[in-house]
Task: structure prediction
Amino acid sequence: MRRRGPRAAAPVWIIKTCPRGGAGSNEVRMKINAKDLAAGLVLLAFAVAGLWLNLDHTLGTARRMGPGYMPMLAFGLLLFISLIVLGMALFNGPDPLERWAWRELFLILAAICVFGLILEKAGLIVSLVVTIAISSFADRTHRPLGVLGLAAFLVALCWLVFIYWLDIRIPVWPTYFGP
Amino acid sequence: METLFTNLALGFSVAFSFENLIFALLGAFIGTAIGVLPGIGPVATISLLLPITFGMSPTTAIIMLAGIYYGAQYGGSTTAILLNLPGEVSSVVTVIEGYKMARNGRAGAALCTAALGSFFAGSVATVVVAASGPLLTSVALSFGPADYFSLMFLGLIISAVLAQGSIVKGIGMVVLGVGLGLVGTDVQTGQQRFTFGVPELSDGVGFVAIAMGMFGIAEIILNLERPESRNVLTNKVGSLYLTREEFRRAVPSVLRGTVLGTVLGILPGGGASLSAFGSYMVERKVSKNRHLFGTGAIEGVAGPEAANNAAAQSSFIPLLTLGIPANAVMALMVGALIIQGIQPGPRMVEAQPDLFWGLICSMWVGNLMLLVINLPMIGMWVKLLEVPYRHLYPAIMVFCAIGIYSINNNVFDVYLMVLFGLFGYLCSKLKLEGAPLLIGFVLGPMMEEHLRRAMLLSRGDVMVFIERPISASMLAIAAIALLAMLLPGLRSGKEKAMAEGG
Result:
């Protein structure tokens, strides 16, 4: 994730071995799979965290399993698997890490977080417009008028589906300034 | 035989009730729409619409959700043929021959083959579901806890083996899913596990939040970072009628695709896309006109399209008879049923005959509707392709956000969904599959319960899993499946099939 652009290639170590007799050298390439390495680390982190948190739970016996027995089995197995993934990652590459679309990622997730933050105070309609406005920056081909039309359409659609038809308990208008 | 007819009569009376007809139509309609649109698939759509179904009766809800799944198989072919772009993962191989046919001016014929082939395959698979359902159920009722545990274990292994990409990573995601499923209150002791003292987590991690985050939100970001290249190259659909020659060539492929799809759909981890790949490989090897492949051979459309639809139906078999989801869509169905208060499993046929038979009959009705929705109205769906993704993603996002909030009227779920959106994006960047995680998450708590019961009954003796013949054979199959994938020959074969498909 740190590397960017064309430099993102996985590290390839070239170990030169000289066979006995010395007639020429073979190149043995050790290819590291950066994606698998990272994936293995993610799984390993989950396994270690799970096993560590599981220390709080009584294990019980195989016959009478306590709340910690199944988590121990599951996260123990995950630990084992993550180590296999890590081990295999040393040989089955190269598979470099990809660039992240940080801008799109941030805008979309932020838009939804803002929706959660203001929904209960500002009501459905205002929250929808704000959320759509934030998310529209994630696609550079959006035009202001188009976003406005889209917001109007989606507000109408969501009102129809969630308020009129499903009647969910959700404030429609801002309650903050209300009585 | 007689009971089958009375059951089917019951099913049709349920399926033909006004409400169920309307929602089957709605499901088929939505399914076709999202099938046509690239960038949103059935998994995202079904998780998106889960909150909306909570107010319905369970039967109606499942009928609609099922309609979305098999409707998407119809719609996906339209995009594949007209746009040289798969509308769904399951129509990836349809692109190869279908688009060539469209370039040859036979787009209408390709669409017609896809729709008729799908209808035929769907009808056959529906009959298979109806016939095998009660049979498998009666077998499953004799299962003890140990057998169930082994069956679920087998299901998880096979779903990881057949999933795309690395098997070890697939198994890792399954196990991680099982671990996530354990979060919450322990059923037997009432102890809180992995909740960090957060009261919202005491009922477990929200199933809908995981599904929406990993398949809805993460997909949006992934689609946004790819530049959109969508231009309808074939505006003229042409005649929908097949020539006699084309019809003659398509029939055997449809038959082969139907059989293959029905069988592969039942397997865990199988489902629509695997069947379509499989059928394409078979057609290229055995069809009489295999030398025409690559130039727009109708066999390459007829076989895979029949197969993916057959598989979409038959993957309901393990769900309805054993309560085990065969793929991510079926995991969502389990979630929908559990939220409705129905525990999927062999007792469902007797406890919920309306749901079981109603769903089966509605599948056939839905396939008939899809034929009408797709063929005469094809022009409308082509128009839908002109909707750009920038108008689509805010709608998906907003529906996810309101839907997840409405489940518990709690913003915590909204943030949880965001978290899983981030995790889903991370996973896809590291080629970790989301589907095995979802299946593991659904099966995890059930496995724990069966494991506890089995070990209690055997007084802590692990040998019970090997001594019981059913359990032992399940474990043996799981071991064989794992070992087979370690063989380099088979593995490279699978990788080759996947690579050619993608």
Summary: DSSP finds four helices and two strands in chain A. Chain A touches chain B through 70 residues (CB under 8 Å).
